[in-house]
Design brief:
The chain is an alpha+beta fold. Helix 1 packs across helix 3 and helix 2 packs across helix 3. Helices cover 21% and strands 27% of the residues. The strands form six sheets. Strands 1, 3, 4, 5, 6, 7, 8, 9, 10 and 11 form a ten-stranded mixed β-sheet that branches. The longest helix is centred in the C-terminal third of the chain and has 29 residues.
Amino acid sequence: MARSWLHLTPFLLTVYSVIGFYLSTVDAKNHHRRPMVLPLHLSQRNHALHRHVDNLRRHLQQSELSRSTPNARMRLYDDLLSNGYYTTRLWIGTPPQEFALIVDTGSTVTYVPCSSCAQCGKHQDPRFQPDLSSTYQPVKCNPSCNCDDQQKQCTYDRRYAEMSSSSGVIGEDVVSFGNESELVPQRAVFGCENMETGDLYSQRADGIMGLGRGRLSIVDQLVDKGVIGDSFSLCYGGMDVGGGAMVLGKITAPPDMIFSHSDPFRSPYYNIELKDIHVAGKRLKLPAGVFDGRHGTVLDSGTTYAYLRKDAFVAFRDAIIREVHFLKRVRGPDPNYDDICFSGAGRDVSQLSKIFPEVDMVFNNGKKLLLSPENYLFRHTKISGAYCLGIFPNAEATTLLGGIVVRNTLVTYDRRNDRIGFLKTNCSEIWRGVEFSGVPAPAPSVSQSKDTNMEVPPRIAPSGSPPNFLLGSFRIGFLTFDMSISINDSNLKPNFEELVELISKELEVDNSQVRLLNVTSKGNDYLVRWGIFPAASANYISNTTALSIILRLRDHQMQFPERFGNYKLIEWNAEPERKLTWWQHHFLAVVVGVITTLVLGLSAIGIWLVHRHRQSIIPYEPVGAPMPEQELQPLRS
């Protein structure tokens, strides 16, 4: 359809490509943008034409770039189970204002809450204040955008399938990518929200970082400026680790990476050519083209799970159930959903591949992407050792692959060559194994191991690089962190007992584990030191719990009621488990033994003394007591 029409009009494409090449800063669309509703209903003819023009222009531009083009290397935070998404840190304005943004390949706009927002939720960071940025400029109303009621500033409006939405004005400012990025700050266009609804209103993350195909996409803007190559990569951490890495720009593809063609003319989404799915080496019996309906098979980093056409889901579900028939079926964690869950698999994620089958996704070119159990399962939140399918039926023909499918997988969106690459790897150690255009690799954020010990370097400021977790050195005995609290009302003082309850809730630990260690104050400002200690029955904090606490502290994810004013995390420290001597380990037993021995010894001595005393008393008869008569014996002469 779109391709045949293009084939019949080569001269028109040539004209558009020439115009696009020389006028790369002019938006080719001269009509007002409509709100984006997922899934999109697009005019294939117009979309394919503009995409083709953009591709021709960018290919010419990319061919002139040097191979030493920098890239933006950025950390990923959060995880799918706790948050349903992954975020990165972005700084906007001068001086920079920091935001936690969901990395979303299905969105084409980057937006954050504006200080003037009339309907925005309470998020992780303060709202963006344009007045405080010396480099902020509103994007003035022009024929290439929708305009506000005053016809002064461009606006945007995005609506999503889960019934959430975001709308606001469009501005331009300096965007920074963090101190690990080789790419210097760049001016970019972004959305300043005036209204949020649905999940966008209630989520902890501040907003969205749009990585999709579109003129407002942060990737398209950087590519159009010629500051990065037309590519970006994402790598999501595993089931129990979270986090990961993102690179905006070109990387050197590892030799083992497999690729699938991605058709940019089909839709603005990043699609792949999925042909078959194999479970335990057996092909699912499905009709040809089952994964090619509507938008095809779409990769969407902003979606948590995977969604297959109903017949494909039923076949997949039944195949998994057959392979794990020995496991007990249990109800899911949420009674509102009919999840497919199994118990009895154990808590060790590294052992799941011995219980659950391998799954292969087969592309049209014959290449296979191996999915381990963590790529189609999520951990049951209420039953230990239980897991549920993270694959669900889709009401429409599109196959949607969310973040769960690519956990511990380096995914390279090679837009210049219209392909997407996959490489199974440990995403928490991705900095070690991938070459970023000759840039030296920084230290990894997290490293996985089967060992149950973990080392955390002490005194790491939360504003610096993430902690370097080196396994096998020591267990964590307790954590401490210093927090500054600024109370707005001088008549109010912080209720530390209530803060203990709030902190324990935010960090998901018991109240008894949170202890107030020290408080100093000056006016309305308080410096508070807290301690997180092991549960009553434990000698150390488990790896999973410690990692979760540290990441929440480092990423400023705790939220307190407004009456507590503003808080800031100063620093945190991890203390190793203290190894006790034999006397310390057995002190109580020794004390009890000594006391018992003394009591028994003294009791025995007392009994012996009483007995001896009784034996030494001479018997007597009372005066006047009758005496038995005795016969007198004659005296012998």
